[in-house]
Amino acid sequence: MARHATRSGSLLFFSAMFVLIASPAWLSGGHPGDGRLDGRLGRRGLLGACVMGLDQLPAAADVIRLQQAPLPQAYRDSVVPTAQALKEALEAEESVGDAFIGEEAEKTLSALEQKAGQLVQRYGETYIAERGLPADAPLRSNQVYFLMEDAIGIFEVAVQSDQLPKARQKLIAKLQEVLDLAAKVGIEES
User: Fold this and answer.
1) pTM of the model
2) N or C: which end of the chain has fewer CB within 10 A?
Protein backbone atom coordinates (compact mmCIF):
# COMPACT_ATOMS: atom_id res chain seq x y z
CA MET A 1 0.00 0.00 0.00
CA ALA A 2 1.33 3.44 -0.83
CA ARG A 3 2.32 5.67 2.05
CA HIS A 4 0.44 8.60 0.50
CA ALA A 5 -2.88 6.86 1.04
CA THR A 6 -1.93 6.06 4.61
CA ARG A 7 -0.92 9.63 5.46
CA SER A 8 -4.40 10.77 4.44
CA GLY A 9 -5.83 7.86 6.36
CA SER A 10 -3.82 8.78 9.44
CA LEU A 11 -4.98 12.37 9.32
CA LEU A 12 -8.51 11.12 8.84
CA PHE A 13 -8.06 8.79 11.82
CA PHE A 14 -6.75 11.60 14.04
CA SER A 15 -9.55 13.87 12.79
CA ALA A 16 -12.09 11.21 13.68
CA MET A 17 -10.45 10.81 17.08
CA PHE A 18 -10.80 14.54 17.69
CA VAL A 19 -14.44 14.55 16.61
CA LEU A 20 -15.09 12.06 19.38
CA ILE A 21 -13.47 14.46 21.84
CA ALA A 22 -15.11 17.70 20.72
CA SER A 23 -18.44 16.70 19.23
CA PRO A 24 -21.44 18.47 20.75
CA ALA A 25 -23.25 15.15 21.37
CA TRP A 26 -20.30 13.85 23.31
CA LEU A 27 -19.95 17.01 25.38
CA SER A 28 -23.65 17.06 26.24
CA GLY A 29 -23.57 13.56 27.63
CA GLY A 30 -24.58 11.70 24.49
CA HIS A 31 -22.37 9.10 22.89
CA PRO A 32 -21.71 9.22 19.17
CA GLY A 33 -23.16 5.86 18.22
CA ASP A 34 -21.10 2.95 19.39
CA GLY A 35 -17.81 4.85 19.21
CA ARG A 36 -17.49 4.62 15.43
CA LEU A 37 -18.00 7.51 13.06
CA ASP A 38 -20.40 7.44 10.17
CA GLY A 39 -18.40 6.00 7.26
CA ARG A 40 -20.04 8.46 4.87
CA LEU A 41 -18.17 11.41 6.39
CA GLY A 42 -15.24 12.46 4.28
CA ARG A 43 -12.05 14.14 5.43
CA ARG A 44 -13.54 17.61 5.07
CA GLY A 45 -16.67 16.51 6.90
CA LEU A 46 -14.61 15.30 9.83
CA LEU A 47 -12.57 18.50 9.98
CA GLY A 48 -15.77 20.53 9.69
CA ALA A 49 -17.29 18.56 12.53
CA CYS A 50 -14.18 19.34 14.60
CA VAL A 51 -14.62 23.06 14.00
CA MET A 52 -18.36 22.96 14.64
CA GLY A 53 -17.79 21.36 18.04
CA LEU A 54 -15.44 24.07 19.30
CA ASP A 55 -18.16 26.50 20.30
CA GLN A 56 -19.58 23.77 22.53
CA LEU A 57 -16.47 23.52 24.67
CA PRO A 58 -16.76 25.11 28.11
CA ALA A 59 -14.93 28.39 28.59
CA ALA A 60 -12.22 28.41 31.25
CA ALA A 61 -11.61 32.02 32.19
CA ASP A 62 -10.74 31.32 35.82
CA VAL A 63 -7.13 31.57 36.90
CA ILE A 64 -5.94 28.33 38.42
CA ARG A 65 -2.89 27.91 40.62
CA LEU A 66 -1.22 24.76 39.34
CA GLN A 67 0.11 22.19 41.77
CA GLN A 68 2.68 19.48 41.36
CA ALA A 69 0.77 17.13 43.62
CA PRO A 70 0.67 13.33 43.51
CA LEU A 71 -1.93 11.97 41.10
CA PRO A 72 -4.97 9.92 42.05
CA GLN A 73 -4.32 6.31 41.00
CA ALA A 74 -7.27 6.22 38.57
CA TYR A 75 -6.14 9.39 36.81
CA ARG A 76 -2.53 8.24 36.61
CA ASP A 77 -3.74 4.92 35.14
CA SER A 78 -5.52 6.89 32.42
CA VAL A 79 -3.21 9.79 31.61
CA VAL A 80 0.08 7.88 31.38
CA PRO A 81 -1.06 5.17 28.91
CA THR A 82 -2.98 7.78 26.88
CA ALA A 83 -0.02 10.15 26.60
CA GLN A 84 2.34 7.25 25.88
CA ALA A 85 0.13 5.74 23.16
CA LEU A 86 -0.47 9.07 21.42
CA LYS A 87 3.25 9.89 21.60
CA GLU A 88 4.20 6.49 20.16
CA ALA A 89 1.70 6.84 17.29
CA LEU A 90 3.00 10.32 16.46
CA GLU A 91 6.63 9.16 16.65
CA ALA A 92 5.85 6.25 14.33
CA GLU A 93 4.22 8.64 11.85
CA GLU A 94 7.23 10.96 12.13
CA SER A 95 9.70 8.16 11.45
CA VAL A 96 7.83 7.09 8.33
CA GLY A 97 7.40 10.58 6.92
CA ASP A 98 6.45 10.51 3.24
CA ALA A 99 8.20 7.21 2.57
CA PHE A 100 6.45 4.17 1.20
CA ILE A 101 6.12 1.38 3.73
CA GLY A 102 5.27 -2.28 3.43
CA GLU A 103 2.02 -3.90 4.38
CA GLU A 104 3.35 -5.23 7.70
CA ALA A 105 4.71 -1.84 8.75
CA GLU A 106 1.40 -0.31 7.69
CA LYS A 107 -0.49 -2.71 9.99
CA THR A 108 1.82 -1.87 12.88
CA LEU A 109 1.36 1.87 12.38
CA SER A 110 -2.40 1.47 12.08
CA ALA A 111 -2.52 -0.56 15.31
CA LEU A 112 -0.59 2.18 17.16
CA GLU A 113 -3.00 4.82 15.87
CA GLN A 114 -6.06 2.79 16.80
CA LYS A 115 -4.78 2.17 20.33
CA ALA A 116 -4.04 5.88 20.74
CA GLY A 117 -7.50 6.75 19.43
CA GLN A 118 -9.25 4.46 21.87
CA LEU A 119 -7.27 5.76 24.84
CA VAL A 120 -7.71 9.42 23.87
CA GLN A 121 -11.45 8.85 23.47
CA ARG A 122 -11.71 7.22 26.89
CA TYR A 123 -9.58 9.99 28.46
CA GLY A 124 -11.74 12.65 26.83
CA GLU A 125 -14.96 11.05 28.00
CA THR A 126 -13.68 10.78 31.55
CA TYR A 127 -11.71 13.99 32.04
CA ILE A 128 -12.57 16.54 29.33
CA ALA A 129 -16.28 16.15 28.59
CA GLU A 130 -18.74 18.22 30.63
CA ARG A 131 -20.25 15.04 32.04
CA GLY A 132 -16.79 13.80 33.02
CA LEU A 133 -14.61 15.60 35.56
CA PRO A 134 -16.52 18.30 37.49
CA ALA A 135 -15.41 21.88 36.82
CA ASP A 136 -14.35 22.34 40.46
CA ALA A 137 -12.46 19.05 40.77
CA PRO A 138 -9.07 19.48 42.51
CA LEU A 139 -7.44 17.46 39.72
CA ARG A 140 -7.99 20.38 37.35
CA SER A 141 -5.35 22.35 39.28
CA ASN A 142 -2.77 19.59 38.92
CA GLN A 143 0.01 20.48 36.51
CA VAL A 144 -0.12 17.04 34.87
CA TYR A 145 -3.80 17.56 34.04
CA PHE A 146 -3.03 21.02 32.69
CA LEU A 147 -0.17 19.75 30.49
CA MET A 148 -2.31 16.93 29.09
CA GLU A 149 -5.13 19.36 28.36
CA ASP A 150 -2.58 21.57 26.60
CA ALA A 151 -1.30 18.61 24.55
CA ILE A 152 -4.82 17.78 23.45
CA GLY A 153 -5.31 21.45 22.55
CA ILE A 154 -2.17 21.39 20.36
CA PHE A 155 -3.44 18.21 18.75
CA GLU A 156 -6.86 19.79 18.17
CA VAL A 157 -5.44 22.86 16.43
CA ALA A 158 -3.05 20.77 14.31
CA VAL A 159 -5.84 18.50 13.10
CA GLN A 160 -8.22 21.38 12.40
CA SER A 161 -5.65 23.29 10.40
CA ASP A 162 -4.41 20.19 8.57
CA GLN A 163 -0.97 20.88 10.09
CA LEU A 164 -0.41 17.73 12.12
CA PRO A 165 2.94 16.95 10.44
CA LYS A 166 4.27 20.42 11.37
CA ALA A 167 2.98 20.23 14.96
CA ARG A 168 4.09 16.65 15.56
CA GLN A 169 7.43 17.48 17.22
CA LYS A 170 5.87 20.04 19.56
CA LEU A 171 3.14 17.57 20.47
CA ILE A 172 5.60 14.75 21.07
CA ALA A 173 7.63 17.03 23.37
CA LYS A 174 4.50 18.10 25.27
CA LEU A 175 3.41 14.47 25.74
CA GLN A 176 6.89 13.60 27.01
CA GLU A 177 6.57 16.48 29.48
CA VAL A 178 3.27 14.96 30.69
CA LEU A 179 4.93 11.56 31.14
CA ASP A 180 7.98 13.00 32.92
CA LEU A 181 5.93 15.08 35.33
CA ALA A 182 3.53 12.19 36.04
CA ALA A 183 6.52 10.04 36.99
CA LYS A 184 7.97 12.84 39.14
CA VAL A 185 4.84 13.62 41.18
CA GLY A 186 3.92 9.99 41.77
CA ILE A 187 0.64 8.60 43.06
CA GLU A 188 -1.50 9.73 46.00
CA GLU A 189 -1.44 7.52 49.03
CA SER A 190 -4.80 5.92 49.66
Assistant:
1) 0.68
2) C
